[in-house]
Please model this.
Amino acid sequence: MAYSKKWTVRKIFRTIWITFGILFIIWLLYSYQSKGIPDIFFENSPSVIVVESKNLYSFTPTHDYRKVIIFYPGALVDPKAYVPLCRKLSDNGYQVLLIKMPWRLAEKGYNIPKQLDLCADTTKQYILAGHSQGAKMAGQFVYENPSLIDKLILIATTHPRDIDLSNVAVPIMKIYGSKDGVADMNDIEKNKSKLPSGTKYVTINGANHSQFGYYGFQLGDNRADITREQQQQITLDNILSFISDD
Model:
């Protein structure tokens, strides 16, 4: 009898944990889905052609362009969450390639630019950018392929942590928010020695982690003191300034 009651209690606890796990996964999938993106960002215009393929979204100017921006999404985040930023970059005369990572994990697909020969045109300049885990793996790509990338942009990440980019010749910019609860400013400071002394650091006051994309509130993040639109605009302005500086 006692054994039966003990087994019943175990089954109840196991059922609770399994249910909790399933609900947590459902919440994560919902939270990391893209939200609030106007359809116009996915539509062609006289100046930009938008194409979705199996591996990426491409935003290509209809006129001649010299620079290509390759963007890595954050872990588990719907890549569409970065379409507004990528489209606005392309509206300024750059081709932008937003990579769709396998299982939405940049660590599984960070070599896609090399596998698809996205950096093969030697007449172009290539800028690699990423958010969160996407930024971490963008740094890994540059570490392994420094000759393929002309500039690197790290957004909302404490990395590089396990690799050393301090001696690379590639110009680097790191953008982060003062209210980021995922990529904490103190941890970012700890890893400054892993980046070149000339790295450009941009702190966006009031910005958090989630608002670098158009998706839900991320677990562990802080509430931002500025709007998503303000955070996106400041990010866009700094990226444009950095990549236009030859």
